[in-house]
Each structure stands twice: as C-alpha cells, then as structure tokens.
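Below is how a single chain appears once it has passed through the pipeline. First comes the sequence as given, then the structure the pipeline wrote out for it. We keep one example in the README because the format questions we get most often are answered faster by looking than by reading.
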Amino acid sequence: MRQRLTARLARRTVQPLALASAAVVALAACSAGGTADSGADMAGNDGKNGGPAAIAVEPGADSEKVPVSRKVTVRAQGGSLSSVEVSSPGPGKLSGTWSEDKSVWTSSTPLAPGATYTVNAKGKAPEGSALTETASFTTEAAQNTFVGTYNPDKGTKVGVAMPVSITFNKPIHDKAAVERKLKVTASPAVEGAWSWMKDRDGKDRIDYRPQKYWKPGTKVTLRMDLAGVNAGGGVYGTQQRVVNFTIGDAVTSTVDVVKKTMTVAKNGKTLRTLKVSTGKKDFETWNGTMVVLSKVPTIRMNSASVGIFGPEAYDLGEVKWDVQLTPSGTYAHAAPWNEGKFGRVNGSHGCIGMSTADAKWFYDQVHLGDPVTVVNSVDTVATNNGYGDWNVDWETWQKGSALD
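Resulting structure:
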C-alpha cells in the first residue's frame, strides 16, 4: 500500500496544475490580502480530503509578460513547504514571507521588468513524501531601458593592455547596482578592478583592468547579468551576455620623443628600434600609455576633424599603415612627407610618423589592445581618451569602483 501511494504521489507532482492553479486564482480573487488564511483554506482542500498533495506556483510555468506589480505565490496543497527560491540572473533573488503553517510563501521584493525568474520549491506531503516544483516566468518589458556597448568582442584575441570596457547609452544613477552584476574572471587568475568614468561624449563608462598587464595566453570571461537591473531613474537593463576572449603575445612599444625613436618588443625581447618624428611644439604627442584601438591600411587625415585650422591645417588624402591610439586623433602611421626628420626632428601635429617601410612593419606587428607608451613628452593622455587606464595608479583606479 505504501509503495502504491508513493507512486501515485510521484505521478501527481509532474502533472499539469491547471485545476490547482484555477483554485488558487479563485481564492485570491476573494481574498483581500489574507495570504495565510488563503493558504489555510487551500490546505483544507488538499490530500487530507482525498486529493494528492502538490505544490502550486503563481505565476504559472512559462508565463510571459507578467506585470511587475504581481507577487509570486507558492502554496503547498497539502503538507508544507520547506524551501522556496525565486531568482533571476540579473535582479537576483526575491525575498518573501511565510504563512504561519508554512504552507504559503509570498514574495515581498518587487519584480524587475524584462527579467526571467525561476522558482524552485520543495516541501513534504502529510505522510512524509517529498514534494518538488519548478516553474519559470518572464516579466513584462520595461518602457525605459539601458544597454552597454562592450569591448573587446566575443572570441577575439587582444593585446596585454586591453581593458574590459562598457559604455552605457543611458545615465547610470545607481552605479553600484549595475557594477554588482558585472563580473570578469580570468585563467590564470589576476587581481583586477572596475572603475567608472565619463566617456568623451559624456556617457557613463566602466572599465576593468588588472593591476598589471594581462599575461599572454590568459583566457578572460566577462559576464553581464543586467536584465531587470534598476540603474536608477526608472531605467532598467536588458542584457544577458557571456563574452570570452584571449590575450595574445605581449607586444609593447615605447616612444621616446627626445631620442625620436620607437622600440618594439615581443614577449620581453626587443624586435626593432625605429626612427620616428612625433609632435612639434604646441602639438606634442600625448605622454603616457595608449592602447591600440584599430588598424586601417589607408585613411584620409583632415585637420578639421581634430580642430586644427588656419596655417597649420592639412588634408592628406591617402595616409598609409595607420594604427589608431586615441579617438582624439593620435595615430602611428607612414609620413613620407616628413622624410629626413625621422630620428632628428619632431615635426608632426601629434601623431607618430615614420617611413613607409617602417610603418608597414609596425602595422604588421601590433594588434588591438597592444600598449604604446610615450615618454619624455608633456601632457598625459586622459583616461577616457581611448584606453588611458594604465596612466592611473592602482590605488586611485580601485577608488573608481562604486562598491565598498
């Protein structure tokens, strides 16, 4: 008899709960917030009166566009509940309250919009057999949402100085709430930290960098669990992303504006020292570490795009082997019009110029995320001018986090 009853209970817990759910709705419509009383009434119509015990969840399994004003209710239709967990990868877990007899659990944390929640409930039937129920539902989308544009892209291989960078399309008022849902892991592990800043166009941006450059071969994963996260001001996240990328060889370049040279090394071994011409007076090349942002074989360079007019204006139609270092217009490139100045005179408007042959060689050596450090110049490149993250000391960088 015991075995037959257990078998019937096992079959019952996996069957649809349409009839039970309908009963829950009917009782909820008649109750003005008496959660514990409703649970007690439900328990009075459970397996004790002949029906098999079960767990009912509202909203039901696979519900869509659930209003955020709705509460999650889990009821033991017979027996009692032992544990209830309701969670979403972005907003996290919901808190809740129990009825006196632990037959009903009701959420107390508001639902987040645009989030998928999973309910895992466990309990016991009157005769002691286990009850389990799992359900999921998705809340209605928020009217006002934010997204983050992230770098680097999934599946890429980048240089040792490449930070993880996310720029948001809406103001982030609750930076701590957003930062808690961003996670970077690495193999081998590193000490790293997030730091907030304003991008050059005034948008909120957060970067993650290790204390020191990544080690070649490191595998890095960014996790963005932002769906349903409240950034403040009624703006909610929508993204769930897992982004994997790999660190390539350590290709580092050092430009000395006094010596007018650029020394390029790979994994600690010097490859070549090139003769260059950097920024002239009043147009000095940024000091400090910049990071390769992009490469293009040919580009038009027009001084108007960087605010240079009058006698110093220029319009160069085909500039070869261009390695971009800042969005403000700093490149390392071929500058055959400055032939005779390389290694002798700084004559550019801030770029790092070299012969066409040397520029082609340099172009072939470097990749996205490789550091180029300028020494003996004047003003240090701003943190948000590309990836100037490495010009901030580690203690100051850590203070840029929104978390304690």
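Residues 1-49 have pLDDT under 50 and may be disordered.

See the next section for the split statistics.
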